[in-house]
Amino acid sequence: MGKMDDGKYVTIEEFIDDFVKYINNNGKLCENGDICDKAQAFAQFTYDVRQDSARKIQANLANDSQKTSQTVIEESLKAWGQLDILVNNASQFYPTEAGKVTQQAWRELLETNLTSPFFLSQAAFPSLKATGGCIINLLDIHADRPLEKHSVYCISKAGLSMCTMALAKDFAPFVRVNGISPGAILWPEHISEKSSGSKMTEILEKIPLNRKGESSDIAEAVKFLASSAEYITGQIIRVDGGRSLNQ
């Protein structure tokens, strides 16, 4: 990937730098508004900066993830001809109280949060091997310490943690595989300053840095693992302000 004379990206760093700038100037990608609209807005932003530098490919990863994952990778290769990095960020998050979990919820959360990242990684491996690329999985601090009434979500993220380490061994030495475990970055929809101020305070009190993180903190971690971490694989980086120290 790169910035050639026609204005396209040359490096992963340039693309992610623009991603960080977009977040800082235009707000959080995943807050308020349909995620597809947000994805299209970012694609348009990068296109305006460097013509034909980004495209949106929409897919339902909760449905037949092996076939869908293969299609996503094939469409990406049609657009660019090669793959340099795969970031598995698509995820679903909602409560599933033990004792009341439905098979539909189980399948949906596991399919989106664990199965699809695995099959996307598998489908992307040949192309990433050719370019010496890498895979970055987005996890959660609750992959290690469960969140009350979110059992299936936590199970799915714990599985993705093991998936990260297992694929790092299987794909070495050709493709690096790492993970990022965010802490309090975006407040869940059920938490707002007006209705849940005490809950926010409770969470912040557990964070040594005494504040929530920003989307750009995660983007910077992705940038590091994608570009500068050539001797790092099979690792999970916690971007949580130290919260995991106090769980």
Automatic annotation (TrEMBL):
<dbReference type="InterPro" id="IPR002347">
    <property type="entry name" value="SDR_fam"/>
</dbReference>
<dbReference type="GO" id="GO:0016491">
    <property type="term" value="F:oxidoreductase activity"/>
</dbReference>
<keyword id="KW-0560">Oxidoreductase</keyword>
<protein>
    <recommendedName>
        <fullName>Alpha-type protein kinase domain-containing protein</fullName>
    </recommendedName>
</protein>
<keyword id="KW-0723">Serine/threonine-protein kinase</keyword>
<dbReference type="InterPro" id="IPR004166">
    <property type="entry name" value="a-kinase_dom"/>
</dbReference>
<dbReference type="Pfam" id="PF13561">
    <property type="entry name" value="adh_short_C2"/>
</dbReference>
<keyword id="KW-0418">Kinase</keyword>
<comment type="similarity">
    <text>Belongs to the short-chain dehydrogenases/reductases (SDR) family.</text>
</comment>
<keyword id="KW-0808">Transferase</keyword>
<dbReference type="GO" id="GO:0004674">
    <property type="term" value="F:protein serine/threonine kinase activity"/>
</dbReference>
<dbReference type="InterPro" id="IPR036291">
    <property type="entry name" value="NAD(P)-bd_dom_sf"/>
</dbReference>
<dbReference type="Pfam" id="PF02816">
    <property type="entry name" value="Alpha_kinase"/>
</dbReference>
<dbReference type="GO" id="GO:0005524">
    <property type="term" value="F:ATP binding"/>
</dbReference>
<feature type="domain" description="Alpha-type protein kinase">
    <location>
        <begin position="6"/>
        <end position="50"/>
    </location>
</feature>
